[in-house]
Amino acid sequence: MRTKVAIIGAGPAGLLLGQLLQRQGIDNVILERRSGDYVLGRIRAGVLEQGTVDLLREAGVDQRMSEEGMPHDGFELAFDNRRVRVDLAGLTGGRSVMVYGQTEVTRDLMEAREAAGATTIYEADNVALHDLDTEQPWVSFESEGETRRLECDYVAGCDGYHGVSRRSIPEDRLEIFERVYPFGWLGMLSDTPPVSDELIYSSHTRGFALCSMRSRTRSRYYLQVPAGERVEDWSDERFWEELRARLPEDIARTLVTGPAIEKSIAPLRSVVVEPMQYGRLFLAGDAAHIVPPTGAKGLNLAASDVHTLYHLLVRIYREGRADLISRYSDICLRRVWKAERFSWWMTTNLHRFSDKQDFERRLQQAELDYCTGSRAGLVTIAENYVGLPFEALE
Fold first, then answer.
1. Is 61 part of a structural domain of the chain?
2. Tens of pLDDT along 52-98?
3. What CATH number is attached to the domain comprising 125?
4. Per annotation, catalytic residue among 12, 222, 275, 297
5. Domain count of the chain?
6. Are 29 and 3 in contact (CB under 8 A)?
7. pTM as predicted
């Protein structure tokens, strides 16, 4: 087999890159080690930055998002039993976010790829990347019991932190920065109306809570829990009781409860890999960085990587600008570290790190009080939440 761009991973990053390249006539093949049903079954967050929404529109997969997605012009921070609304649109000159589930984004991209007749090979086993530091990289894999070879010009590693792409870069060429938090998020999905029209991030002495949604009839709630906590120990009743305890009283009174559709616990950590490029391999999304979900940056950072890589590949094939390859990592990492900083700030100031009312807790309260009481502080929060601008590739 021969293609121009081999894309490893059929998550949102790989599918979005493939769709954008396909629309520009740049042939690509996606290899995914899981089945399509498995990929669609993964439940993830769904707060899309303005730039991500614009990129999905450029990719031509925005019809259902425009019909079913929920534009949000603000969100709330709750602390000290009070609520402060962050007016995203008013503080950023009209920019906003879109609540539209990552599962739905993936579904739209899968359907568009199928309609375009582009090649995706699911359940590709033993994927290996070869000769990445040459002008003729290639990928070997097994499919339907046969060993196959995919020759290409470039490889896009969109297969997550534990995927083969990052591990294909020599260890002495990588530097990994990591911070692990001593807690996770217990998430519950339920067919109940959201408790609010906008997201609520709540800081409480009992721990952090988040009120989110997937639609006007389906809610997604999260609770901070200690590292090592088990889902089996949390009945629906216990979850709802704890959520009420962590919300402002007026919100807790209006909470509609119901049986869980799904519960899971996600650990929180920050990871950045430098550089994000080796030879003709480019890392994108979780293959290069992981953020705590507090700032809603995971999928959006993947989209910003794809934006840069897409424009880079277009200029290579249209203008012969291979000299731009060396700029990919630096451009991506500038935005990555700013998103990591914002996610760290949200995580640090909204979660409980100690059972005591200690010095750190007082600093959290002072930080939230100052930032929400200052227009400059609110602008900083809003600008980061809606997403910083994509950097041009020059």
1. yes
2. 999 999 999 999 999 999 999 999 999 988 899 999 999 999 999 99
3. 3.50.50.60
4. 297
5. 1
6. yes
7. 0.95
